[in-house]
Amino acid sequence: MSEVIKNQVIIPPIDAINKRRKELEATGIDIINLGQGIVDFSPPEEILQEVAKEPGLFDYTPDPGLFSLRSEVAKRLGPPCKTEEIVITSGANFAFLLAATTLFNPGDAIGIFSPYYFNHQMVLSSLRLECVEIEPNDSYEYDLDQLEKITEEKKLKAIVLVSPCNPSGKVFGKAELEKIAKVCVKNQIFLLMDEVYKDFVYEDGLADKIPFAHTLEGMGDLAINLGSFSKLYGMMGYRVGWLRMPLKFIDQVIKVQDMSVICACHFSQRVALKILQKNPKFTYDYLPILKDRREKVLDRLEKSGLFEIFPSGGALFIWFRPKNMDVSADQEVFNILEKKHVCIVSGAAFGKAWKSWFRFSFGRCNVDILLEGANRLIEYFSELDK
Ligand SMILES: Cc1ncc(COP(=O)(O)O)c(C=O)c1O
């Protein structure tokens, strides 16, 4: 009899907590759901109506996606990106899988800024790659000289970075990115940059000043960009994103795309294309709302004096832990759900150092609900502190 091959891939943490949340909701309990990193806006109805009338939607698109959409994405990324370097994917997660299967061999060591996006670690782990965590110091800063040392010692083949970061919300600034790029260029290793939250930066004007990976000096064929329409245009369920790889890798990427999904959903590609053509800065209308939520909820948590909060400036998350308490976040998220009816995510899945950390998202709920959620968290941890 054949055996199931087991590897080190973790159980998706959101699935586990969502399963229990749904059981509680089925009994009539109202849960404040701050778990998943999702937004509460979606593509304009008139765009959906217009696209629905377009001919040929029943068909596959070419494997790399609609040329017009690839071209719009290339425009978004800016020179020196070429349309031919863009592959439209079934979301950024799939883009990461395509990139990793193309670039890496089992056993390769990959550096990953920690806290990391757990789906990246899951992909690397399922491909039997070694994940080397790059952790911040006690002031939450990354020592980039140390990065250089780790790169050499561990013979890293690539560095994975999410900016703005899921889960910490940290925005890597231009100077930091330039230093990271220098390490990549010196060691001739890849930088896989997840730019899914690129527009979700709360300091006015800052988003436009942060460079895309492929524009960093000297990166040439070493930069890989991962992007998505999921959060950008509220298209989570449409499953459409992109991968930008240097041209020499595209044939290999297309092999995997063709043998798996063939192409991203045609309808979704057309919706994304229409929004990009008509109102590319669509997301910017929602940023003040997200900013307001973030500020109010941060203020409430900070004033409680109970939490250590990771300094952040972007994405959709607050990343925190209770001060002076050595809790197991894996257990506490279930206790919080049962006792306070708030759903948040345990930090344990985001790296070794984060077992007592928690993530919640301000992307989906309005300010009143968020503040109620924050109050209940404060209540929960004050009771635990006694
Ligand atoms: C950093 C990051 N990358 C990728 C994704 C997934 O994006 P997509 O829906 O395009 O697969 C998420 C979703 O939460 C994310 O937080």
UniProtKB/TrEMBL annotation:
Name under which the protein is recorded: Aspartate aminotransferase
Gene Ontology biological-process entries: amino acid metabolic process
Domain Aminotransferase class I/classII large: 30-363
Family: Belongs to the class-I pyridoxal-phosphate-dependent aminotransferase family.
Superkingdom assignment: Eukaryota
Transferase keyword on record: yes
Entry-linked PROSITE patterns: AA_TRANSFER_CLASS_1
Chain coiled-coil ranges: none
Entry cofactors: pyridoxal 5'-phosphate
Swiss-Prot/TrEMBL keywords: Aminotransferase, Pyridoxal phosphate, Transferase
InterPro entries: Aminotransferase_I/II_large, AspAT/PAT-like, NHTrfase_class1_PyrdxlP-BS, PyrdxlP-dep_Trfase, PyrdxlP-dep_Trfase_major
GO molecular function: pyridoxal phosphate binding; transaminase activity
Pfam families assigned to the protein according to its UniProt record, in alphabetical order: Aminotran_1_2
